Amino acid sequence: MRVRGPAKPGAPVTAGRRPRLRDTGFAIASCAVLAVYNNVSGERPWRSRWYVPANACATGAALSAAAASGLTAADVGLGRDRWLPGRLASGLAAAVATGWLLIAVVPATRPLLGDKRITSLEGRAVAYQAAVRIPIGTVLWEEVAFRGVLQAALRRVMPRNAALTVTSVVFGIWHVRPTAGALRANGLAGDRGRATAGVLAGVAVTTAAGAFLSWLRERSGRVAAPVLLHLAANSGGLVAAWAVSGPADVEGPSRSRQQVG
Question: Residues of 90-107 as b/e, b for ≥16 C-beta within 10 angstroms?
């Protein structure tokens, strides 16, 4: 991927020229692939075992596709001087970590951390998910794909606010299957109407979260910023939930195979 000098945060990738047909096609294809990928691959038997390497390869493929489409490292937030998250993201991540701690120590809020996918995990499984599976398989992949490649591709063919909105909506759609799975795992799916309402609520929440991460990416000019905040939210929530529930009663190897994130 070509590296060019950092653009001013928030500036259009291709200011001063009309979008080319190839740019529009790449943006549409990126939206379609990301809307489908997580909802289809999540149902495959290999998903759990190969989650991290598969998504690491997908990250590389997304960056290669972006480079082939003409996007530079600076365009996707990976410019030469853009590897650190910056003060704003660091402060937000610290606030999220503090929030998880407060929820965990206040008895009235502890029930918010209840998730059977987490409470049944052994300590080693929690460490693996918090330090490997979530950072590489979830956070890095999603941030490069959405706030890096997709957002840059859309900024090349449409106004800033429209690009951020589309990126956030596709991010919400990405979470349809995971939300349905979380509802089933916690016995909250109920009938079809209740399950549908739960999925729609989950998609709305992740769309809003995606909008904030997209804003942070735009504000900072770097993907490292939403990566750090996303990591604090996911891994921090996992560790807090497990710490509150206490070590799982080990009854068999299946307990360590629960997947979260």
Answer: eebbeebbebbeebbeee
Q: 134: Cβ–Cβ under 8 A, 6 or more apart, which residues? A: 231, 234, 235, 238, 260, 261
pTM for this model (two decimals): 0.84
Give CA separation, 168 vs 79, 134, 223, in Å: 23, 20, 15
Cα three-residue angle 251-255-260, rounded to 5 degrees: 160
Residues of the chain falling short of pLDDT 70:
1-19, 42-46, 119, 186, 189-190, 246-261
Q: Give every CB contact of residue 92 below 8 A, 6+ residues apart in sequence.
A: 216, 229, 232
Question: Which amino acid belongs to residue 235?
Answer: S
